[in-house]
Design brief:
Number of strands: 10
Strand content: 5-15%
Subunit structure: Homodimer.
Protein name: Aminotransferase class I/classII large domain-containing protein
CATH class of one domain: Alpha Beta
Structural class: alpha/beta
CATH architecture of one domain: 3-Layer(aba) Sandwich
CATH topology of one domain: Aspartate Aminotransferase, domain 2
Distance between the termini: 66 Å
Family: Belongs to the class-I pyridoxal-phosphate-dependent aminotransferase family.
CATH superfamily of one domain: Type I PLP-dependent aspartate aminotransferase-like (Major domain)
Order of helices and strands: HHHHHEHEHEHEHEEEHHHEEHHEH
GO biological process, one term: amino acid metabolic process
Cofactor: pyridoxal 5'-phosphate
Strand order of the largest sheet: 1-7-6-5-4-2-3
Shape: globular
Number of helices: 15
C-alpha cells in the first residue's frame, strides 16, 4: 500500500512539473511574440511599403526574375532579433526522461510547430459566431466543402447495419468485402486496363500508417527514401518514428530555365543529382516517394513524366511509392490525372506501390482509411503483420464499402459538386491574392494554392512569418503556417494556402492578411 502511494505521489509530482514547464513555455512564447511584433512595427513605422508584385504575374517563373526588383527600395534589409520558433530544435532544452529508452526520448522530442500549433488551435478554434477571434488553422489540408452531401449520404438507411463479424476480430488487412470493393473502385477510377486484385489491397487506418509500414519494411534503420520538395511534411514523422527512416530531398525551384520549363518541375536529372549526392555522403536510398497530384503544389504528372520517374527508379533498383490521395480532386478539365495503375506495363511492378485514401477526395479525414495496392507478395506479407497495429473498425469498413460502391451518387452527385466547389473556392482565394498583389502557382488540383512572398516588402514578410510560424499573433489570430522545414522547401518565402473550406471560413484569414499587408 505504501509503495503504491509513493508511486502515485511520484506521478503527481511529475505531472505538476510538466504543467509548470508548459506554463513557463507558454508565457515565454507569448512574451516573445509580443516583443517581436512590437519591434517589427517600431522598425517599420517610418518606412514606406515596397511595391506590390504585378497582379498579372500569377504563376511562378513566368519570366526571368529582374534583379532590379529582387529587393524593395528600402535600402539594406532590416535586421530583426532572433525569433526562436518551435520548429527549431536547437532552442529547446532537451532533457531525456530516465523512464524512456533512447528511442523513446527521441520519439518524445520529435515534435515541432505542427504538434504544438495544433494543440493551440484545438483549444481556441475559430467559429464565425461563437469565437470570431479564435485561431484559424491554415496549415491543415482538409476538404470541408461538401459536409451537406456527406452527412446526408452517410445517414441513409443502408449505412446502418450491424452483424457479428463487424464487432469481432477480423483479418487485420481489412474485411474481404471492403478489399474487393476497393479493388473495383480503384480499377474504375484509376482506369486500370485490367481488374485489380483484392488480395493485393491492404487497408490501414489512414495513409500515414501506410507510409509508416512501407518505410519500416522497405528500409533498414538509418536508410532513406527520396522525395521531391516541397512536399507534405507529415511524411517526415510517418517514415521516421517507427522505422528510423530518413528522407533525402530532391530540391525543386521556381525558376524557368532551358531544362525547367515550368516552376517546380520535377525532372529525372534532379532525381539523379539528389541520388548521387546522397550516395556520395554515404546515405543508402531504398526508394522514391511521389505524390500525384502533388501536395502542396497541385501539379499533375503526365503519363510521360510518370514513365520517366518509374524507369529512373527501375534503373537504380529503387522502390517507388505513389501517393494518389488527391486523384479525384482535379477540378478543371484542362488537367487530367493519370494513375500509375492505368499503365499497360509497369517498368518494375514488384517495386511499385500505390496508396489512396478517403480523407481528401471525400472530405472525411476523421474516418481513418488508407489503402495500399502492391503486387509484391513479400511486401504485402510484411506490412500485413503491421496491420494489427493499424486496424479499422468493422462498422467503418462496412460504411466505406457502401460509399465506394455507390457509383451513381459519386458520379452524379458528389464528384461534380465537389469539383465545382473546389474550383469556386480556388477562384475566390486566387482573386483575393490578385487583389493583394501576391503571385501564386495557378494549378487545377488539390486543396492548396502555393503563394510567393519574395517580392513582398521585408518588413511585412517578417511580420507574416512571425505570425504564421507561431500559429498566432499577439491577439490570437492566425492565418498562415510558413514552416518551410516541415515542407522540405529550400526556397522561402513561398508557402501553401489551403482553399477547400467554406468562404465564411476563408474570408477571415484573408481579411487578417490584408490587415497585415496594410501595416506601415
Amino acid at each position: 500500500m505504501e509503495e503504491r502511494f509513493l508511486h502515485l505521489e511520484e506521478q503527481r509530482v511529475q505531472l505538476e512539473q510538466r504543467r509548470l514547464e508548459v506554463e513557463r513555455d507558454h508565457e515565454f512564447r507569448m512574451f516573445s511574440i509580443f516583443a517581436q511584433m512590437l519591434n517589427i512595427l517600431k522598425q517599420g513605422s517610418g518606412a514606406s511599403p515596397g511595391p506590390a508584385a504585378p497582379m498579372s504575374w500569377q504563376g511562378f517563373g513566368l519570366a526571368p526574375e529582374d534583379p532590379k526588383r529582387s529587393r524593395t527600395p528600402q535600402g539594406p534589409e532590416q535586421t530583426f532579433p532572433v525569433f526562436y520558433g518551435l520548429s527549431n530544435p536547437g532552442t529547446r532544452h532537451l532533457q531525456g526522461s530516465p523512464y524512456l529508452s533512447n528511442r523513446g526520448n527521441d520519439i518524445k522530442f520529435k515534435s515541432g510547430i505542427n504538434d504544438e500549433g495544433n494543440a493551440a488551435y484545438y483549444a481556441d478554434k475559430y467559429d464565425e459566431d461563437k469565437n470570431p477571434n479564435g485561431i484559424i488553422n491554415f496549415g491543415i489540408s482538409e476538404n470541408k466543402l461538401c459536409f451537406d452531401l456527406l452527412s446526408k449520404r452517410l445517414s441513409q438507411s443502408d449505412m446502418h447495419h450491424i452483424e457479428p463479424s463487424l464487432l469481432q476480430y477480423q483479418d487485420w488487412r481489412g474485411h474481404m468485402f471492403l478489399r474487393e470493393e476497393m479493388a473495383r473502385f480503384l480499377t474504375y477510377y484509376c482506369k486500370s486496363p485490367n481488374p485489380l486484385k483484392p488480395e493485393n489491397v491492404i487497408l490501414f487506418n489512414g495513409c500515414g500508417s501506410v507510409f509508416s509500414a512501407l518505410a519500416t519494411v522497405l528500409c533498414d534503420s538509418g536508410e532513406a527514401l527520396m522525395i521531391p520538395t516541397p512536399f507534405y511534411g507529415g511524411i517526415v514523422n510517418n517514415t521516421y518514428l517507427y522505422g528510423n527512416v530518413q528522407l533525402v530531398y530532391a530540391h525543386l525551384d521556381s525558376k524557368i530555365t532551358e531544362t525547367n520549363t515550368r516552376p517546380f518541375q520535377l525532372t529525372v536529372e534532379k532525381l539523379e543529382m539528389a541520388l548521387q549526392r546522397a550516395r556520395s555522403e554515404g546515405v543508402h536510398i531504398k526508394g522514391l516517394i511521389l505524390i500525384n497530384p502533388q501536395n502542396p503544389l497541385g501539379d499533375v504528372y503526365s503519363q510521360g513524366e510518370l514513365l520517366e520517374y518509374l524507369e529512373f527508379a527501375k534503373r537504380h533498383e529503387l522502390h517507388i511509392i505513389l501517393d494518389e490521395i488527391y486523384m479525384l480532386s482535379v477540378f478543371d478539365e484542362s488537367a487530367t490525372f493519370h494513375s500509375v495503375l492505368s499503365m499497360d506495363r509497369l517498368p518494375d511492378p514488384q517495386r511499385t506501390h500505390v496508396m489512396w485514401g478517403t480523407s481528401k477526395d471525400f472530405g472525411i479525414s476523421g474516418i481513418r482509411l488508407g489503402a495500399l495496392y502492391t503486387e509484391n507478395r513479400d511486401v504485402a506479407a510484411a506490412v500485413a503483420n503491421l496491420c494489427y497495429f493499424h486496424g479499422i473498425s468493422g462498422i467503418i469498413q462496412y460504411q466505406i464499402a457502401q460509399l465506394l460502391r455507390d457509383h451513381d451518387w459519386i458520379n452524379q452527385v458528389y464528384l461534380p459538386t465537389n469539383q465545382s466547389r473546389l474550383k469556386a473556392a480556388h477562384t475566390y482565394i486566387t482573386d483575393e491574392l490578385k487583389t493583394l498583389g501576391i503571385p501564386f502557382l495557378n494549378r487545377n488540383s488539390g486543396l492548396y494554392v502555393w503563394i510567393d512572398l519574395r517580392r513582398v516588402s521585408v518588413r511585412k514578410r517578417k511580420l507574416m512569418v512571425v505570425v504564421g510560424e507561431w500559429g498566432c499573433s499577439g491577439n490570437g489570430e492566425a492565418f498562415w503556417r510558413p514552416d518551410l522545414d516541415s515542407l522540405g522547401s529550400d526556397s522561402p518565402p513561398t508557402h501553401p494556402t489551403p482553399v477547400a473550406a467554406p468562404s465564411t471560413y476563408t474570408r477571415a484569414p484573408l481579411r487578417r492578411s490584408c490587415c497585415c499587408f496594410a501595416v506601415s
